[in-house]
Specification:
By secondary structure, this protein is an all-alpha fold. The chain has three helices and no strands.
Length: 91
């Protein structure tokens, strides 16, 4: 009898808390749109998309020559090997 009475009290309370949480959660998008008074106004244009088809400007510098690229890759490989040896010795 006591367990049934507790269930009858807690079930409406839990339901009320759930409904309140859903109601407050529905307002969160409106709260997110609020800005401080000193913030710069931003224009909201619905339907504008990022310029995905715009290409970056051409580079002023030339591409890395193959010799320099091979030298850089060799230096990186040597550094990787040194770190592997140092990590192996540390264990």
């Amino acid at each position: 009898m006591l367990a049934l009475w507790d269930l009858q009290k807690t079930l409406p309370t839990c339901g009320a808390l759930l409904i309140a949480a859903l109601a407050v959660g529905g307002c969160s998008s409106q709260f997110a749109d609020l800005t401080p008074a000193d913030a710069q106004p931003h224009v909201r244009e619905p339907g504008t998309y990022l310029p995905v088809h715009d290409l970056p400007p051409d580079r002023d510098q030339a591409i890395i020559p193959p010799e320099q690229r091979a030298r850089i890759e060799a230096e990186l490989a040597a550094a990787r090997d040194r770190q592997a040896v140092a990590a192996k010795d540390a264990k």
